[in-house]
Design a protein that fits this description.
Blueprint (H helix, E strand, L loop, with lengths): L10 H43 L12 H4 L3 E4 L9 E6 L4 E11 L2 E10 L16 E7 L22 H7 L5 E8 L22 H29 L5
Parallel strand pairs: 4-6
Antiparallel strand pairs: 1-5, 2-3, 3-4, 5-6
């Protein structure tokens, strides 16, 4: 039985595969470089937030920029409007319950303050410590609409996100600032609401992602060299 002739791949197919492989290597390298730039940005962000959150409190900014003022520690001298409280569903390290949101009337408009967390059994004001100025805490941008799983429904007073302007409309309040204050804890250590629960933590896996993309580029490059050397070994006429 005679051997059948070997069918050789057209040269243009080989060239196309090589070009695609080279393109993939370049793409992986670019993605790795992008993650390195993201790593530098995230490290600068973490350092900036740490500096803001743990500095001495300052007054409210004249205009709010989320990138510049998020987690800024502030102090506000104003009286709470306890009649307009809003309870926002939450889950904290303590357990499920509510954030107690209360508005303040300031010269710049209505400022909502998150006094802290209360469990469901302590969701009425008779269980809460009496608030007293000044309000000291961290600035947070308003969270509009709701969460991925639920939406705010002012008509039935159901709140799942701290949407300051929508809360003011529901309580017939005036012009409202586009941020709120996560207040420090007031009163005895075990008093409700439990303030000071702001989580200041940012995921930072950019170095891991960068190394993954660089490893993919290295694997593609190694495979490409292997294929070229194998082809030249089988056919010495290949340049």
């Amino acid at each position: 039985m005679s051997d059948q002739p070997t069918v050789r791949r057209p040269g243009w197919v080989t060239a196309l595969l090589l070009a695609l492989s080279v393109m993939m290597i370049v793409v992986f390298l670019l993605l790795g470089n992008w993650q390195i730039r993201r790593l530098a940005w995230k490290q600068d962000l973490i350092a900036a937030v740490d500096a803001r959150a743990f500095q001495d409190p300052v007054g409210l900014p004249d205009s709010f920029d989320a990138e510049e003022h998020a987690y800024l520690r502030v102090s506000v001298e104003a009286e709470y409007q306890q009649a307009s409280v809003v309870l926002v569903k939450t889950v904290t390290e303590i357990g499920p319950g509510y954030w107690v949101m209360m508005p303040l009337h300031t010269d710049q408009g209505i400022l909502w303050v998150n006094r802290g967390y209360v469990p469901p059994d302590f969701s009425t004001s008779e269980h809460w410590a009496t608030p007293a100025p000044p309000v000291i805490g961290l600035l947070r941008p308003t969270v509009e609409g709701g969460t991925l799983l639920e939406s705010n429904d002012p008509a039935i007073d159901r709140w799942v996100s701290r949407d300051t302007r929508e809360m003011s409309r529901a309580r017939n309040l005036g012009s409202t600032l586009p941020f709120f204050v996560d207040a420090d804890h007031q009163g005895a250590p075990g008093a409700w609401p439990r303030g000071g629960l702001t989580v200041i933590r940012f995921s930072n896996s950019h170095l891991y992602y960068a190394l993954t993309w660089y490893a993919m580029a290295a694997l593609f490059a190694g495979a490409l060299v292997y294929v070229i050397r194998s082809a030249r070994h089988k056919n010495p006429d290949v340049p």
